[in-house]
Amino acid sequence: MRLDKFLVEAGLGSRTEVKKMLKSGKVTVNQVVEKSAKTHIDERKDQIAYQGEVLSYEKFVYYLLNKPKGVISATEDSKHRTVLELLDETARQKEVFPVGRLDIDTHGLLLLTNNGALAHEILSPKKHVDKVYRAEVAGIMTREDVSRFASGIELKDFTCQPADLEVLEVNETAQTSRVQIRIAEGKFHQVKRMVAACGKQVTDLQRFSMGPLVLDTDLALGAYRRLTAHELETLATFGVEV
Hints:
By secondary structure, this protein is α+β, with helices and mostly antiparallel strands. The chain has seven helices and 13 strands. It is elongated.
């Protein structure tokens, strides 16, 4: 790997910024000052340091984002703000992307990473990775609706796999419900369409969990953080390098 690429991925700054650092003589390779950005290093064996502080190499990075409404789950878009625009420059330099998509008006848990193999495993229909949503609904969700979800709701273009619907709260006066829905699929507008098939309407939708990852309630909307060591351990169960 080129030295300047390593320094960028280590979070020291942009290509332009790290080249300035190199020229200033603040970077050493195996305790020898190195000023050339083109120098090739072994990122796993060579000791790279900046101002005496040894840098570690991260092949993959993982961010847990509390996605707000009005932002799309994409890496670029000409009309809407994307989730990548919520990250700082250092995080964006890792070339991360969202694992799966949340509708523009849906908020909640979104994983961003540069680990394509892991993303494939999480999104693969064969893996049946559970996704849990919490929804505010216009209308009263009933026991009959719970049974319909469990049996597999039939939509116009496909029949949903059996899903869990839990009615958390009902407001008879306002004729509204608060529910939790667990599905193992992730088709376009699926949760909203399943509720609509029961004659009600989702007015607010939040993804609370995906596989082993659970939304951090301390994260404000639009905020993100790196995964903890424990969360990374849970991702290792997918059988790919983490």
